[in-house]
Design a protein that fits this description.
Elements: H1 2-11, E1 25-27, E2 33-35, H2 36-44, H3 68-87, E3 113-115, E4 120-122, H4 128-132, H5 134-137, E5 141-142, E6 162-164, E7 169-171, H6 173-178, E8 185-187, H7 188-296, H8 301-311, H9 331-360, E9 378-380, E10 386-389, E11 409-410, E12 419-425, E13 432-438, E14 455-461, E15 465-469, E16 473-476, E17 484-490, E18 495-500, E19 505-510, E20 519-524, E21 537-540
Antiparallel strand pairs: 1-2, 3-4, 3-5, 6-7, 6-8, 9-10, 10-21, 11-20, 12-17, 12-21, 13-14, 13-20, 14-15, 15-16, 17-18, 18-19
Helix pairs in contact: 7-8, 7-9
Length: 546
């Protein structure tokens, strides 16, 4: 009973027209109470002036005055309601971005529901009539939203409850009956469910693409880091090479200058000796000339006859016609210095493959032979590092990955990104193939080695003929016979290179390749040839060049 009494007293503070707490309450002559604005508006739109509750008609519009008693009671009621609302766990002031109650005065509380019929949002307290009054219970309540007028049909002023898939637009019930009878229409909830499913699928696709793009970004960043480090090493190596060249040039220049200066000093010493000797002879000739001049003026016959024989004999002198100082003495010296410099430059150029090899050896991987791919004629070592042709067929299961005709074998591990390098000892062999092969190669029947068929290889035949198996066979002219071959692959750059490890020299490179699947190390130890080629191919540990 106490609860009913409290509920009844609360109802008496609600206007029966607006269903909200009285604002400026007034009383009609029949004793019913309304908001002043509500009853005035009601009478303004009606031909009769009557009470909306009891329908009593007034022949003259009553003069309305504020009922101070009810007004004070309403004020007290508002305070109690607001205290109760703010103290309720579900009620709190609306934060920025949240929907607020349209009926709260003063402090706006967070809306609990929005009514699509009233086009109004209510907090927990002001929502109470919609949960109690039978007429209001039929109103459609939704989670609180802004701009409720956007959810109403502009043409029929009814809630938008349907979706036309034909026209891709939202409808009310009257729209369906007038313009969309033959269209594919569904309730909003059904279209919402399908759209949410598509949205979820799209979100998953976007998430997957984001993840793929993120991985790609990481790969590119990693590639840039690798490129940067490689560029730094290239710069460091080139600085070292050019520093050595500059030092060699400066040293050759200093030595050349020293030789030229020494030869010039020797020429000067030679010239000084010649000049001194010539000057002595000139002095003697001048003395003889003076004596002859004096003798030519004498009138003493006896004196002339006594001195003429000795004075008329020329003093002894050298034949200086063939004597000279060599003016082109430095030409040969400069030529020899330039020749030595050229030799030094060639030596430095020969170091460049060694620098390259030193760098790529940092990408060495541990390669082990895969027995499941081995041709039945091949014999492997227990550690999977050696293979040779046993010249006798073994009874092995015919697996899809096993080579059936060509006696070759692949490495266990495949590579689908980055760089890798390994070395194989070929010393003592007369035939061999080395390189890499893609995963999808044909392993049954005859094999043609070429990039088109998925093989990037070089080989030795007859102990002396080296070829690269490109689209056309490339004859390789090697200074020395390789004893150990290094194989380097840069997957992203599309490059497969071969090196003579001991000579520190480059053998051949496949460039501009496009790799789309895993690459596996490829080995062919050659036929046994009556024991002449029985030496195994050996995967060797990489000893990086100092």
């Amino acid at each position: 009973m106490a609860s009913s009494s409290r509920l009844l007293s609360e109802e008496q503070f609600l206007c029966s027209i607006c269903l909200d707490v009285f604002t400026e309450p007034v009383s009609t002559p029949c004793g019913h109470n309304f908001c002043k604005a509500c009853i005035s508006g009601y009478w303004d739109t009606s031909d009769l002036c009557q009470c909306p509750m009891c329908k009593e008609t007034f022949y003259r519009r009553p003069e309305l005055r504020i009922n101070t008693f009810i007004s004070e009671m309403v004020a007290q009621f508002r305070k109690s309601v607001q205290w109760k609302a703010t103290s309720s766990p579900g009620q709190r002031p609306a934060k920025p971005g949240e929907v607020s109650c349209d009926f709260c005065t003063g402090m706006k509380l967070k809306a609990l529901k929005s009514c699509l019929v009233c086009l109004t949002s209510y907090c927990e307290t002001h929502l109470e009539p919609h949960q109690r009054v039978p007429a209001l219970k039929r109103h459609k309540l939704i989670n609180p939203v802004e701009n409720l007028e956007d959810r109403m049909c502009k043409k029929h002023d009814r809630p938008l409850e349907l979706f036309c898939r034909t026209d891709q637009t939202c409808l009310c019930v009257l729209c369906l009956k007038t313009d969309h009878m033959t269209h594919d229409t569904v309730p909003l909830e059904e279209e919402y469910g399908e759209r949410m499913a598509k949205l979820g699928k799209m979100m998953a696709e976007v998430e997957q693409k984001m993840h793929t793009h993120f991985r790609k970004v990481q790969e590119i960043k990693h590639s840039v880091d690798l490129s940067k480090r490689e560029a730094e090493r290239e710069i460091s190596d080139s600085v070292q090479v050019f520093t050595d060249l500059v030092r060699s040039i400066e040293r050759s220049q200093a030595e050349l200058i020293e030789v030229i200066e020494e030869k010039q000093k020797a020429a000067e010493r030679q010239a000084e000796g010649i000049i001194k000797e010539l000057e002595q002879e000139v002095t003697e000739l001048q003395r003889r000339s003076t004596e002859l001049e004096q003798l030519s003026h004498t009138e003493d016959h006896l004196h002339l006859l006594q001195n003429c024989p000795s004075l008329c004999t020329p003093p002894p002198t050298k034949d200086w016609s063939e004597i000279s100082v060599y003016s082109d003495m430095c030409v040969g010296t400069v030529r020899r210095a330039v020749s030595q410099l050229e030799e030094t430059l060639n030596k430095e150029m020969e170091k460049l493959p060694e620098v390259k090899l030193k760098r790529i050896q940092q990408y060495d991987v541990d390669v082990t032979l895969d027995p499941d791919t081995a041709h039945p004629y091949l014999i492997m070592s227990e550690d999977g590092k050696q293979v040779q042709n046993g010249n006798a067929k073994q009874h092995l299961p015919d697996k899809p990955v096993r080579f059936s005709t060509c006696p070759c074998i692949l490495g266990k591990e495949g590579f689908s990104s980055g760089r890798f390098y390994y070395e194989v000892t070929v010393k003592g062999k007369t035939d061999w193939d080395l390189g890499v092969a893609r995963e999808s190669i044909n392993r049954k029947g005859d094999i043609t080695l070429s990039p088109t068929n998925g093989y990037w290889t070089v080989w030795l035949r007859n102990g002396e003929q080296y070829n690269a198996l490109s689209s056309t066979m490339v004859l390789l002219h090697l200074r020395e016979k390789p004893q150990k071959v290094g194989v380097f692959v840069d997957y992203e750059e599309g490059q497969v290179s071969f090196y003579d490890v001991e000579a520190r020299s480059h053998i051949y490179s496949f460039t501009g390749c496009t790799f789309t699947e895993k690459l596996y190390p490829y080995f062919y130890p050659g036929n046994n040839d009556g024991g002449e080629n029985s030496t195994p191919l050996t995967i060797s540990p990489v000893n990086q060049t100092e």
